Records
---
Amino acid sequence: MDEIARKPERRGFLPIHTNGFDRGFIAVVLFVAIHLFWMRFLEQNVPLFVATILSVIIGAIIVARG
Amino acid sequence: MRSSAVGWLFLAPTLIILFIFGVVPFLYVLVIGFTQWNTFAADPTMQFNGVENFRRLVFDTPFLHSLWLTLRFAFFVVASEIMLGYLLAQLFMRDFPGKGFFRTIHTLPLVIAPIAVGATWRLLTVPGLGPLPYYFRTWFGYDLNIGRYVDQAFMMTVVMDVWHWTPLVTLTLLAALSSLPKEPFEQAQIDGANRFQIFWYVTLPMLKPAILATVFIRMMDALRTVDEVWMLTGGGPGSATRYIGLYIWRVVFPKTDYGYGSAMSLITLYLTIVMCWLLYAALVARRDLKRVEA
C-alpha cells in the first residue's frame, strides 16, 4: 500500500494556521490599515511612500514567513 | 481530466454571472474611489486623484462619527439578537400549548420589507399619534420622543432591528439545536453536570459554527443598515442615528459626490471584512491551534 506523502507542517510566526491566500489577505488588510493610519497621523511629517514601502516589506514577510 | 472539464462547463454560467454582477461592479467602485467624479459639477468628467478621497475620509469628523455610531449599533444589535434568539430557540425546543401559532407569529417580522418595518415603527413612535409615547407617558410618566432625545432615537433603532431580525437568529439556532445529538447531553447529565455546565461545555461548543455564521450575517447586515433607520429617524435627531449607510447615501445622492462616496463604501466593506475575519480568527482558528497543541 502506498502511503500518501504529506508535507511537513508549516510553522509560521502567525498564531493561527494559514495558507497562502490567508497570508496574502492579512498582508492586504495591513497594507490598507497602515496607509489609513499614516494619512491620519503621520503624513504631515513623513511622506506616504514610506508607508507603501513599509507595507510592502511587512506584507512580503507575512506571505513568506507568516 | 474529462470530468474536470465537464465540471467547469457546468460551473461556467454561475461564474460568468458572479463575475458580471459581483466582480465587475466592485472593480468599478474601486476605480471610482480613486477619482474625483461629480456628474453635476462644472467639470463632470471622471478625474483620477490618487488617494485624495481616502485622505479626506480619515479627517472627515462626521464620517468617523457615523462609523463609531454604526459600530455601536452593530454591537448592540448583534449581541441582543444572539442572546434573545438563543433563548427563544430554547423555548421553541420545548412543547407548550400553541407552540406552532407562537412560532408563526414570531417569524412574521422576517417577511416584512425593511422600509415597511421602518414606517410601522415610525407610526408607533410619533408623539401625539403613536401608541408607544402615549403608553409610556400614561403608565410610567416617561417622555418618549425619538425626534428630540438622542439616546431614545438610538435605542429605538436598536429595538426595531432586534424586533425585525431576531426571528432569523431563532430559526438558525433552532435548526442547529434540533440537529444536535442527544448522547453528549445524556452523558453530561449522568456525570452530574448542572445546567450551566451543560450549556457552557456541551451546547455552546457544538452550536459555535451556527452562532458564528449567524453573527457574520447579522453583523454584515447591521453595518449596512439604511432603509429602516431612514424611515424611522431620518438619521436624526441631528446626526444621532446617521449610520454609515445613511451618510454614504447623503454624499452620493443629494451631493452627487461619487468618488468620495465610493471611497467610503470601500472603507466600510474593508471594515466589515476585517471584523468578520477577526471574529473568525478569534473563535475558529484559535480552536484549530489548540487542537494541534493538544
Note: Helices of chain A lie at 20-42, 48-65.
---
Amino acid sequence: MSGPAGDDAPDAEGAAVPAIRRVAGTGVPVRGDDIDTDQILPARFLKAVTFDDMGEYAFYDQRRDDDGSLNDHPLNEYTGANVLAVNENFGCGSSREHAPQGLMRWGVEAIVGESFAEIFQDNCKSLGIATLAVDHEDAVALQDFIEANPEAGIEVDVRAETVRYDGTTVEGEVPDAMREALLEGIWDTTAVMRTNLDRAKAVHDDLPYTDD
Amino acid sequence: MSEGTLYDKVWERHKVADLPNGQDQLFIGLHLVHEVTSPQAFGMLRERDMEVAFPERTVATTDHIVPTSSEGRSRPLADERAEEMLTHLEQNTAEAGIRFFGLDDERQGIAHVVGPELGFVQPGMTVVCGDSHTSTHGAFGAIGMGIGTSQIRDVFATGSIAADKKAVRRVEVSGELGDGVGAKDVILHVIRQLGVDGGVGHVYEYGGEAIRSLDMEGRLAVCNMSIEGGARAGYINPDETTYEYLEGKEFAPSGDEFEERKQYWESIRSDEDAEYDDVVEVDAADLAPQVTWGTNPEQVVGVDEAVPAPADTRDPDAAETAQAHTEVTPGETMEGHGVDVAFLGTCTNGRVADFREAARVLKGREVADDVRALAVPGSGTVKRKLEAEGIDQVFKDAGFQWREAGCSMCLAMNDDALEGDEVCASSSNRNYVGRQGSTEGRTHLMSPAMVAAAAVEGAVTDVREFDTADTIGTEVDE
C-alpha cells in the first residue's frame, strides 16, 4: 500500500483518484465565525436522493433577498472563484455532506480559514476539497485582498501548506491525513479500506458483542 | 496523549489497520441509517458494484422527513420528495438485508432514540450515523460519531471508517443539581463555559457528581449536545445506571450472556489512573435553568441572569448580530420574553423522562392563548409508553398537539416549521438562524420542563416558580 508513482492512484476498480497538489484560481470571501451547515445548505434542500442539484442551494437563503432576487452575497459576486476564504469554526453543526457538496458543485476546490468543524473537514477530505487553517490576521488579510482584487490569482499549495497571492506567502496547516490523502490521491478511502476487509472481519469476529 | 481512558481502550479494540494517510481504519460496531444522508451512499456503492459488508451491524429508521400527523403518514406521502426518500430507504435496506423500522413499524422513530431504547447501543461499541448527533450514544460508554455520506459509503463497503484519534478532555461537572434543573441545563452550561468550538480536536469524557446523578435519558441529552461544543464525541463511563437501563431491552443480551457482556463493559471503563490530555472543571451547584438568548448554543444564560452586552461575550460581533435577530435586550433577563411556539421532542429531549418532566409542569394547567404547542415523541415506543401511562392526556388537556414520532420542527424537513418571525421555546439542540424552517424564526433552547412552563405562560419563565406534580401518570411495567 505504498503511495502511487504518478498523479493518479488507481483504486480497486481501476478508476482514478486524482492527486491534488495545488489549487490555483481566484477567491471568494465569506466572512463570519461559526457559520453552520444549516446556513451553507438549508435543511429543506436535503430532500433529494442525489447531490446533483446541491450547487444551486449553497448559501441559498443568504444569497437572496426577501423577494427571492439575488443579492450581493459573495457567491453571487465572485462567480468562477474556487478558493473560499472564511473565518473561525466554519462548517459547524449538522454532519450533512450536502454542505461541502454544495460548495464543491458551486466551484469551490479549496477553503482557507481560521478553523473548521471536524465533520465538515472530514467531508471535505472525502470529496478532495483542501482545507488550509491560517491565523486570524492572515484569514482577514486574504479576505480583504480578494475584495480589493477579485480577479487576482490565489494559489493553495497542499504540499507546502501555504496560500500564495500577490507576492505574499502565508503559512498554514492542512491536517496531516488530508495532506497525505490529497497528495497521494488516496482521499477516497473506500478502495484502500476495502483491501483490509479480511482484517475488518477478524476485528468484527473478535469483538465481544458481535456473536448475536 | 491520553492513556487508559475508555476512548483509548475502545479505539484499540476496534482498530483494523494503519492507513497510508496516517489515519486509523476503525471498525464500526453499529451503523445507524436514516433516509436523508444514506441514499447517495447506497448509490455510490451500486456504482462501484459493492455490497453492504456487515448488514447485521446496521439498523435503519426513518426520522427526518416523516410527517407527524397520523393522517399525513398514509402512503404515498403527500410530499413527493419525502416519499421518494422513504421509498429509496425501503428498497435499499430490503436489498441489503438491513433491519429497518419503517412507518408501519410501531418502533419507528429518531435514530438516536430508537438505537438506545431497543438495546442496540451498548457500552464499548463504536457507533456511527450520518447525523452529527450520533454523539448521543456516548451516554452508554460507546464512541458515537457523526459522519458524512461518503463515510457512510465507507461503512457500507468496509464496516469501517478512516479516522484520527482525538485528544480526550475530561469534563468534571461538580455540584448537586437543584430542583427544576437537569441534564439540558448542565450541557448548555458546559457549552457556554467551553465554547461552541471548544471541543474541536477532542472528545469529551463527562464525569463528576452532577453527571453520575443523571439517569440514562439525562445522560443521552448531555452526550447528544457534545457536537454543539465542537467535540466529535462525548461519553460517560458505564455504571450500574447503564446496566439497569440495558437489562431487558429487546436487542440487548439477556441472562448469562448479559453478565458475560458486562465483564467487557466493565473492562473498558476509564482506569482510575487514566491520563487525559486535558481536564476541565465545571461547577453545576446553584445552576439555574438555562435559556439561549442568541443564535448558537453557547449564547446562553441562566433564566434569572441578565443577557450579556455583546462586548462582554467571546465574540461581540456575533453577539450583536444574534441579539438583533432574537430581539433580546442586554441587561435584562430572558424571563418574560414572549414565545409563540412550544416544541417538545427531538433526539435531545424526546424520551419518556423528558415528557414526564414536562407533564409534571403541565398537569392541571393550560397552554397560553396564541401559543402553538407540539409534543412529538422521539419514537413510537416512547409514544405508546406515555399513552399507557396516561401522560398523553396531560398534554392533550393542556392544549398540546400530540403527534407521531419524528425529528419534526428541530430542522423542519416535514410540515412542522416556524412561520415568519415566530419565537419558539424548543427542547431541541440548535438555535441557528433558519434551523426551524423560517429564516426569520427565533429559537430559544431550554429543558423540557422549561418548554412546558413557557407554553403555559406564553413567555420564558423560571420553572422553579411552578408547583409541579410529584408523580405523573401511572407507571406501567415494560
Note: Chain A touches chain B through 65 residues (CB under 8 Å).
